[in-house]
């Protein structure tokens, strides 16, 4: 079982190159200037990678490999997306 904090937001830092895990978030409706709420986590037994379930900018849910993600913030809000610049200004 994988547990995660219900207020967890992550930011995209897409890995490049031929061995980058798929799907590539920036080609799947995500942006560099936003934080995304984690709505679930999945880890397949045959992989050491965890996949975070994130709602993209189009309202679609995607399984994005943790290697494309970095910690963004813990925020108690009903929003599923946050502008990252706004969060940095309020800290």
Automatic annotation (TrEMBL):
<protein>
    <submittedName>
        <fullName>Uncharacterized protein</fullName>
    </submittedName>
</protein>
